[in-house]
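Input (structure):
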């Protein structure tokens, strides 16, 4: 079992596959143990995602409705006006979001668009929200400019394992993605990086994706795990569904090997029932995208998320303002101690002794 405070960057494929192969209950127990070591078990971070430039992307990602290579019926849209982006961010904040993510269907940002993008960051940041962007590949200068504007997170997913990658994308290499992540990290921003499940990959590919993420020099602060949204007109539009328990297992393994990261339920929640989402939270997912749309695909209505949170006793995680990492960790440890004192941690050994004495 992974030990408390055991942050590693040397995972082997065999070790990760062994976690996948555990009996489901044992895997969930390990995931919950790791989760409670670093996180409030009953709080979920909420983000909202807005497409600031839609369609006509030159990349050939076989899952994507925005790729210009496929006829999905999606109309091309220009870069949104700054005022509209800020208005959407304010509305998201009022609905409980603490982070606002902005996505553009680009291979990489164009020089003429950067001033507008940077101003979006500044103005959304001024609302008191965390900011995140996904704009495609970044060079070092672009990453530095975004950091200077106040961008907190940059999203750039690896999507799948290196071995399966060329079956999904051919216009951008795996190394291109790793280079962008390195530029983001070097600039001083936090990394949001994960992948997509249900694209026809094997369990070994899912393990391979998680190995790549966990063996980065620093674990991504945020790890979005997407379930494929099948889009008519894309090559993956008729792909078989992933088994729900396999999806939950992947969440649990991600939590165990990247215990301090926020593991986010991203695309695909529209097709998950409450029971599946609840298992994902139990497995260690502690972040969601909130709102009716993720870029161009449907997402559960905000009200349905709040209803499920209320049924599960989950609350939105509040943005900690101007608090140091050390102060946050100290507060978290205090919260964990408070949970122990309130008997939220079940003492199985003592319960077994008590049960035996009663009988």
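Output (sequence):
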């Amino acid at each position: 079992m992974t030990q408390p405070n055991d942050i590693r960057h040397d995972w082997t494929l065999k070790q990760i596959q062994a976690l996948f192969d555990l009996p489901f209950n044992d895997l969930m127990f390990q995931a919950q143990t790791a989760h409670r070591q670093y996180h409030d078990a009953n709080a979920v971070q909420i983000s909202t995602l807005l497409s600031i430039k839609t369609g006509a992307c030159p990349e050939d990602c076989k899952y994507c409705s925005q790729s210009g290579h496929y006829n999905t019926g999606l109309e091309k849209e220009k870069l949104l006006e700054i005022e509209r982006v800020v208005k959407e961010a304010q509305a998201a904040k009022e609905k409980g979001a603490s982070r606002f993510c902005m996505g553009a269907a680009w291979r990489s940002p164009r020089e003429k668009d950067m001033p507008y993008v940077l101003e979006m960051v500044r103005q959304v940041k001024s609302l008191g929200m965390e900011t995140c962007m996904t704009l495609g590949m970044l060079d070092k200068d672009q990453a530095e400019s975004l950091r200077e504007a106040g961008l907190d997170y940059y999203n750039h997913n690896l999507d799948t394992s290196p071995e399966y990658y060329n079956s999904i994308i051919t216009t951008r290499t795996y190394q291109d993605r790793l280079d962008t992540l390195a530029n983001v990290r070097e600039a001083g921003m936090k990394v949001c990086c994960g992948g997509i499940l249900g694209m026809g990959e094997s369990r070994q590919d899912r393990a391979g994706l998680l190995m790549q993420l966990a063996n980065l020099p620093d674990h991504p602060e945020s790890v979005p795990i997407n379930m494929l949204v099948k889009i008519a007109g894309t090559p993956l539009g008729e792909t078989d569904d992933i088994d729900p328990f396999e999806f939950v297992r992947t969440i649990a393994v991600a939590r165990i090997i990247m215990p301090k990261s926020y593991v986010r339920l991203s695309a695909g929640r529209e097709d998950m029932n409450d029971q599946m989402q609840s298992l994902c939270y139990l497995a260690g997912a502690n972040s969601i995208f909130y709102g009716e749309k993720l870029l161009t695909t449907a997402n559960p209505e905000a009200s349905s998320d709040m209803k499920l949170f209320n049924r599960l006793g989950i609350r939105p995680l509040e943005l900690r303002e101007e608090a140091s990492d050390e102060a946050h960790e100290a507060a978290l440890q205090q919260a964990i101690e408070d949970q122990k004192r309130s008997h939220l941690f079940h003492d199985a050994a003592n319960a077994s002794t008590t049960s035996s004495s009663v009988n």
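Notes: The longest helix spans residues 325-341. Residues 324-359 form one domain.
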